[in-house]
Amino acid sequence: MSPTRISRTQRLVGPLRGLLVAVFAALVVAQVAVLPAAFARMADESPDLAPLRWPLLVLAVVGLVCVEAVLVCTWRLLTMVRDDQIFSDHALLWVNGIVAAVAGAWVLVLAAFALLVAAEGLVGLAALLLLVLLVGAAVGLLMVVLRALLRQATELRTDLDGVI
Fold first, then answer.
1. What span is annotated as the signal peptide, if there is one (predicted)?
2. Nearest CA among 63, 77, 92 for reference residue 158
3. How far is CA 121 from CA 92, 124, 125, in A?
4. Which of 41, 71, 109, 121 is deepest in the core (most CB within 10 A)?
5. What is the phi/psi pair of residue 88, to 5°?
6. How many angstroms separate the CA atoms of 28 and 58, rounded?
7. Does residue 99 contact residue 142 with C-beta atoms inside 8 Å?
8. How far apart are CA 46 and CA 26, in angstroms?
9. CA-CA distance, 17 to 12, in Å (whole number)?
10. Short-list 107, 131, 103, 124, CA closest to 59
């Protein structure tokens, strides 16, 4: 790898890691402070939705844990990119972790969507969750395609290393 390319990659990994740390911290704050307060307010303002306060809070917190898992896997993949080790079977494990976390979060959003639709129909938050479901499905499918591309690139790199 050329020195210019190494320094360019290293320049990108640092800011990306900083962004991942900031997002992770914001997610923890949301899990500990923002979501409990928001669901308490929802229960106070909409007594018909009060029974959903705790199930929705649990689904939201666990959903954010899935997002945090994606951040951890991304951190590890950034390390592999920086160290020029991304084209390895080990990288596929981290990508599989991302796919699993996205799938888990999607199932949790689906459950929250079903709870809200059963309680109040397709209005407000339920409509927003439908949009999140569609975006989540697209992200999940994109990750599956990217995993297949990484697998192909890894096989090609292994073949080239064998020839050289």
1. none
2. 92
3. 40, 9, 10
4. 109
5. -145, 160
6. 14
7. no
8. 27
9. 9
10. 107
